[in-house]
């Protein structure tokens, strides 16, 4: 019987249960308790950002960013099509039109050279997605945004502990959105955070996150009562989620190092196949420090990818492909529009497959299966 290797297996540090128990003993289970404060402070200090607000998901963080950007019906927001649905949904919920731009063939991030031609009088924001924890070309994107007076919302769902020119992903644009979903590097089941670069948006972000009330100011003693001030929703996580997350944050450096070690092992052992032009491996530009979030292969064709996945499956290895491009999805066609050709997005989405990458994975078994599959 073949050994079974799942695509993902959540890593536990060992302190999650203890901290959850402590949160229960504190008799504070709703949002913004001591563990939430620890996590927020860690993000602000570690990532060097003005404010960090924990949310119940990265989707929630993106929705908050759309509200803070005051996106209105008919506005346009430029983003890649090769991303998860939440990137677009957050803005479609405000009535905006996602404008899909092709990706670069090397990093699979939005092609910064195509952004300006997608800008119209209705454009309000650019949403770079840091695919696989590898940074977009942020200097150029910020230059374009400044020239055209656009906001930049970084979708850094996969980007915790990764950097661009020594700056943490999610802290470079006006807003950054992180994910702590169980498939990410640092996890709490579901969870996320909104990073805010400067003070301009911070107070309103707190209000939006707390159902449109000034509750946070009330609990800090800055007002004698709290009331409804603005639109908003319940975007904060419960304290048990934050307690779990704090156990992960304590070990963030160690977790990242272990994941990068696995990534390096895959790369070193598969390099010969890339040289033989049998598959293509990930590209990490010199200005980028990745976080070992994902290891993918790009096959020669859709048929080649299918063959590899089938061979791995017979060996007990679960490998998956990634997104159906948003521009070709039913909702993408309904709510969005395409700017230019989507050559690389269409091609790579048919050829990319992801290998299992989790702490403790038997890379030797995966590599042996791959040698026969490729």
Verbal overview:
The protein is of the alpha/beta class and 374 residues long. The chain has two domains: 16-251, 3-Layer(aba) Sandwich (Aspartate Aminotransferase, domain 2); 253-373, Aspartate Aminotransferase, domain 1 (Alpha-Beta Complex). Helices cover 37% and strands 13% of the residues. The chain is built from 13 helices and 13 strands. An eight-stranded mixed sheet has the order 1-9-8-5-4-2-3-12, sandwiched between helices. A hairpin with a 2-residue loop joins strand 6 (163-164) and strand 7 (167-168). The model has no long low-confidence stretch (mean pLDDT 96).
What is the typical, i.e. mean, pLDDT?
96
- Element order: H for helix, E for strand: HHEHEHEEHEEEEEHHHHEEHHEHEH
Integer-rounded radius of gyration: 21 Å
- What's the level 1 CATH class of the largest domain? Alpha Beta
Spatial order of the strands in the main sheet?
1-9-8-5-4-2-3-12
Low-confidence stretches: none
Helix content: 25-40%
- Oligomeric nature of the chains: single chain
Shape: globular
User: Which class of secondary structure composition applies to the elements?
Assistant: alpha/beta
Task: Work out the helix count.
Answer: 13
């Amino acid at each position: 019987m073949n050994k079974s290797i799942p695509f993902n297996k959540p890593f536990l540090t060992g302190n999650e249960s203890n901290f959850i128990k402590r949160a229960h003993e504190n008799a504070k289970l709703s949002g913004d308790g001591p563990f939430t404060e620890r996590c927020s402070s860690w993000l602000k200090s570690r990532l060097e950002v003005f404010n960090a607000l924990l949310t119940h998901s990265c989707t929630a963080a993106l929705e908050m960013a759309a509200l803070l950007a005051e996106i209105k019906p008919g506005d346009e927001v430029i983003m890649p099509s090769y991303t998860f649905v939440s990137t677009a949904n957050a803005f479609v919920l405000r009535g905006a039109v996602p404008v899909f731009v092709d990706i670069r063939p090397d990093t699979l991030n939005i092609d910064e050279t195509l952004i300006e031609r997608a800008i119209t009088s209705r454009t309000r924001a650019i949403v770079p997605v840091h695919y696989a924890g590898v940074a977009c070309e942020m200097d150029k994107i910020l230059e374009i945004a400044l020239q055209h007076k656009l906001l930049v919302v970084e979708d850094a769902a996969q980007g915790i502990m990764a950097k661009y020119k020594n700056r943490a992903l999610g802290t470079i644009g006006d807003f950054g959105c992180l994910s702590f979903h169980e498939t990410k590097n640092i996890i709490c089941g579901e969870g996320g955070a909104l990073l805010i670069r400067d003070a301009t948006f911070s107070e309103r972000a707190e209000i939006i996150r707390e159902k449109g009330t000034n509750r946070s100011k009330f609990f800090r003693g800055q007002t004698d009562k709290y009331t409804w001030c603005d639109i908003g929703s319940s975007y904060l996580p419960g304290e048990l989620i934050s307690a779990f997350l704090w156990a992960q944050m304590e070990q963030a450096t160690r977790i990242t190092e272990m994941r990068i070690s696995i990534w390096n092992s895959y790369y070193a052992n598969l390099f010969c196949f890339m040289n033989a032009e049998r598959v293509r491996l990930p590209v990490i530009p010199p200005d980028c420090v990745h976080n070992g979030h994902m290891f993918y292969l790009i096959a020669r064709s859709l048929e080649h990818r299918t063959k590899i996945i089938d061979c791995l499956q017979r060996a007990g290895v679960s490998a998956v492909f990634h997104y159906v491009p948003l521009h070709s999805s039913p909702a993408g066609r309904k709510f969005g529009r395409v700017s230019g050709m989507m050559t690389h997005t269409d091609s790579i989405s048919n050829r990319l497959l992801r290998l299992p990458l989790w702490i403790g994975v038997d890379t030797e078994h995966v590599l042996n299966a791959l040698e026969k599959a490729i």
